[in-house]
UniProtKB/TrEMBL annotation:
Extracellular metalloprotease that contributes to pathogenicity. Involved in the digestion of the blood meal. Pfam families: Peptidase_M14 (PF00246), Propep_M14 (PF02244). Coiled coil: none annotated. It is found in: Secreted. Its cofactor is Zn(2+). GO terms for cellular component: extracellular space. This is Corticosteroid- binding protein. GO terms for biological process: proteolysis. It comes from Desmophyllum pertusum. Belongs to the peptidase M14 family. Keywords: Carboxypeptidase, Disulfide bond, Hydrolase, Metal-binding, Metalloprotease, Protease, Secreted, Signal, Virulence, Zinc, Zymogen.
Length: 428
């Protein structure tokens, strides 16, 4: 055995022991993982990052944000094994600049977990992240307290048998109006997304101001706080960075499908992976996942009543609309740009924190992706006002946004959603 291999094994043993000590209650440890921010400056730099992303998409080399034609910064989590040394050496050799955003990912996770366990007086239920059981309990309490306005229901059950709950919020339950559908938490690790949806549920259910009345006199709003219930539970107990659902993949040891690559429009094209071990795995077939099937069945049953859709993610501070799978302009490009501009203006000016969001067609400002919710809603169900948003932040915390930023993030999102709905031109 050569000396450098022995040294590597020795370091690996020490690292394994440290992981055991630091992560004794979790299956997946991220001790020593670093999150780097890569700054592409040329098309060649971009092509290299795209190539790396296509080769790697797992806990060793995890693209938190994807390469885009805008040459935006790309955040990558790298394991302390050969991944960090090899990737950073490759970047340096190609003249690609990078900085270390998070020097030890497990330490950042531990800080967030510690914040959840703090014994303290909360100013409200919404200034802390919550488990799935806590979210559903709060949802039931809200539906009971505001029963004249809120109806809680389920689409069915997830792969692991959990209920897929949503609420419908109406000013006049006896009268069916056009519907806007909002879902959060389709990617398990994006905790601020469900937290934001729960804040929006509370605001629409409890407030009696003129703007909320105007919204609910115009549309009924259905909100699904946690789309990927199995994955979300898994992030609390086993792997904080888990993205996919938890369905088994026959013939593979790798678990899960990306629920935002499984929809039956432009399925299996660029921007999704056919490899079950990839975080972007599109599933064995279009609409193969039970969660997608149940929600799609409900949405299709609404017919022309469904007039608006919003899929809430984190992170990057972006508001976007179809298409995602092609650079071709969407048929409603000008109208969707008009609404989007008003949305990001409202987020900045009405949100109270002067936060800037980028907006535009998804394939222009992010990256090509196929089999997504927004393309399915727009291309298959013909929902004109289809949008997706990426919440805070722009990379300082990434998926580990601290508790202190939950309510500011949710407030901004609510202002954006109000602007979205009030700017929609509905046909009589």
């Amino acid at each position: 055995m050569t000396s450098h291999v022995a040294a590597a094994l020795g370091f690996g043993s020490v690292l394994l022991l440290m992981c055991f000590v630091k992560c004794f209650n979790a299956k997946q440890c991220y001790f020593g993982h670093k999150v780097i921010r890569v700054i592409p400056e040329t098309k060649e730099h971009l092509n290299l990052l795209v190539s790396l992303q296509s080769q790697f998409s797992n806990e060793a080399v995890d693209f938190w944000t994807k390469p885009s034609l805008e040459l935006a910064a790309v955040d990558i989590s790298l394991s302390p094994s050969d991944a960090y040394e090899n990737i950073t050496s490759l970047l340096s050799n190609q003249g690609i600049k990078f900085t270390v955003q998070i020097p030890n990912l497990q330490s950042a996770i531990d800080r967030q977990n510690g914040n959840q366990r703090e014994k303290r007086e909360m100013t409200s239920w919404f200034d802390k992240y919550h488990t799935l059981d806590e979210i559903f309990s709060q949802l039931k309490e809200t539906a009971a307290k505001y029963k004249e306005r809120v109806r809680m229901f389920t689409f069915g059950k997830s792969y692991e048998g959990r209920q897929l709950y949503a609420v419908e919020i109406q000013s006049t339950p006896q009268v069916s109006k056009p519907m806007v559908f909002i879902n959060c938490g389709i990617h398990a690790r994006e905790w601020v997304s469900p937290a934001t949806c729960m804040y929006i549920v509370h605001q629409l259910a409890s407030r009696g101001d003129v703007t909320v009345h105007e919204i609910l006199n115009k549309v009924d709003v259905v909100i699904m706080p946690v789309f990927n219930v199995d994955g979300y539970v898994y992030t609390w107990g086993m792997d904080r960075m888990w993205r996919k659902n938890r369905s088994l993949n026959p013939g593979s040891e790798c678990v899960g499908t990306d629920l935002n690559r499984n929809w039956g429009f432009s399925w299996g094209e660029n921007g999704a992976s056919s490899q079950p071990c990839s975080d972007n795995y599109h599933g064995s077939s279009a609409m193969s996942e039970s969660e997608v099937q149940h929600v799609a069945r409900f949405l299709e049953s609404q017919g022309k009543r469904l007039v608006g859709y919003l899929d809430i993610h984190s992170y990057s501070q972006i508001w976007m609309f179809p298409w995602g799978y092609t650079k071709k302009r969407s048929r409603d490009y000008d109208e969707l740009m008009r609404v989007s501009k008003d949305v990001v203006d409202a987020i900045k000016t009405e949100g109270g924190y002067n936060t800037n969001y980028t907006f535009g067609q998804a394939s222009d400002i992010m990256y090509i992706e196929s089999g997504t919710t927004k393309d399915y809603m727009y291309g298959h169900l013909h929902v004109q006002y289809t949008f997706s948003m990426e919440l805070r932040d722009t990379g300082k915390y990434g998926f580990l946004l601290p508790n202190s930023l939950i309510i500011p993030t949710a407030k901004e999102a609510f202002e954006g959603i109000k602007a979205m709905i009030l700017n929609m031109k509905l046909k009589d």
